[in-house]
Structure formats: C-alpha cells, structure tokens
Known about the structure:
A hairpin with a 4-residue loop joins strand 13 and strand 14. Helices cover 9% and strands 33% of the residues. The chain is built from six helices and 27 strands. By secondary structure, the chain is mostly beta strands. The chain has one domain: Pectate Lyase C-like (3 Solenoid), CATH 2.160.20.10.
Amino acid sequence: MAFTKGRIGMGILSLTLLSMTPAALQAATVVYAGGTGTGHYSTVQAAVNALPSAGGTVYVEPGTYKEQVTVNIANVSIIGLGTAPNSVNIEDDLNAQESNGSGGTLGDQGSSTIIVTSYAKNFYMSMVQVSNTWTQEGNAETQAVALYISADRAVLRDVSVIGRQDTLYLGSYACGSTTCTPARQYLYDVYIEGNVDFIFGDGAAVLDHCTINIDEHGSASGETTVTAQRKLYTNYLSGYVFYDSTIESASSSMTNDYLGRPWGTYSTTIFINTVMTAPIATAGWIEFTPGTTDNLPTSYYAEYGSTGVGATGYLDKEREKYAVYLTSSQITQYEPDNFLAGSDGWVPTSVN
C-alpha cells in the first residue's frame, strides 16, 4: 500500500485540543515516545503513563516500538511524527491462547498490541501503524488482536491496523444481562488488514473512506470474513457502517470471501457506496457456525451503492435471503454524524 500523507507537526496539537473538553484543555500535557531530552520516553507506554489524569498528547517519533500499550484514562491522543502511518509501527506478537501466567489465557483483549479501555473516552490516534505479528509469522492459527477499543468517542485518522484473525476490536463500553452501554468509534482513512472476523465486537462504528484488505486464509480457497459484529440486544446503539470505503484482497483468485458473519443475535453491518474489488461471494454473508447458530434471521445486513466485482450479488439481488437492499432515502441515517450523534450530539467528523 502507498501513503502520500505529509508530516504532521505541532499544528495538530491545537486541532486535537479543540476536540477536548475545557477541563482537559486547561491541563493538557505533551510528552514524546522516542527521541531524547526532557519529556521523551523510550516506550509508548511510558509516555502514556506520564500523562496526568486529565489526559494529553503523546507524540511518537518514527521507529518500531515492540510493546503492548494500554490507555486507561480519557482525553489521550497518540500521534505519529513520521511521513506515513508505517513510519511509526507499534507492534507485538501475543495471541489469545497464550498463558496469562495465572492458569488462564490472555483472551482477545490480553492479546492486543494496543488496548483502549472503556475509561479512555475521547481517545484519538493518527499517523500510526498498529500490528500483531503473531499470525503473520506463520504461527499456529488463533486470535491475535492488533487494536482493541471499548472507549466512547474514539477517533482514528490515517492509521494502519494489521493482523490476521480478529485484527480490530470495536466494542461497547460494557454489557449486562439486558442491555449494553454504547461506545462510539469513528475511523477515517484507516487501512485494516486481516482474514477471519478481522473487524469484530459490538461497538457503534463508522468506517469512513477506509481500505479493508482481505488476506488469504491459508490458501486462495480458505474462508474469510471481514466482520463479526456482535450486537446482543435491540435496545442500544451498536453496528458497523462502512461508508465510501474500499474492500480489496490479496489475490483476485480468492473464492471464499464474505462480508461477515453474525457473532451476535442482532448483528448489524451496513455497506454504503463501497467499492468491492475483492471477489466477495455472491451470498455476501454466512452463518456464524452453520448447523449450530441461527443468527442470520435476526441480524441486519444491508447494502447501498456497492460496486466492483464483489458487488455482483448485490447488483443482481442474490445476496443471502435475509440481506437488505437499501434505497437512497434510507441511507441518511447512516451518515457518520447522524449514526454516531448520540444524546450528546457528538460530531465525529469535526475531530481532527
């Protein structure tokens, strides 16, 4: 993939601060990962840890940082200082089945290279590549998350997220026995690479002008699924909207690619004006575990304006029988600032 974005300098700081609350603005702190001198730390985690409880900005010097990073406070921005997202690579090689040292396993969150917890409201990241190299190195196949987000009002711009199975988790704040507390995420110009359920969780997210790259799952005939959305109940905001984005693939000879499968009972995924150069299967969607789960009838999978070789099933109206074909009058509700507005009137497209 090629990037042509220019270097981000100190001007970004003022724009980032404008998106913060007044309290966060008054106490804003700037620290650095990489480089030398006062306020510079050798790792990204050390820089994050140096921020006060009100948050602040971590500027990351170009280079590779092999570490796991957890963001657990609100109003934190992580901004790479390179000329492209891959100039700053934060990577690790953990996997979900790995021992946590206490008789259990790490799980999805524990395997993540970057963990943005539910306490990290107003998280912002730009010009950074986040990778989990476990499955990229030919290890045993299992979940290995690159980026895990369960924070509300999270924004990613000009970011790359690279893995294979379960690359990017976009989840809600928390769930109980009858409902979940929503968490909203907005992604703009983000590159995401994987092969199985590689965008998953029960968050409310819009992926705007993003590039989704499907990697082979063992071979060109291996089954791949872009999404595994997990809306559990009908009474909270949850769902993934792909808006003016592109779905491409590692090979045009791939024969078993799907837009998603329903991890949750009310899985919700919408594609609007998506260019599908990947050879998406005609049905588009597949049951989560055929013969065991029955989530397709209660899920909401919809499309509008799909184009490209992978859109044949949509154009010929031959998608899976429960799929929805939206009309032009129905898509306004899925525009980023409408879908993610919430009760606080959040305008995610203004956060930059």
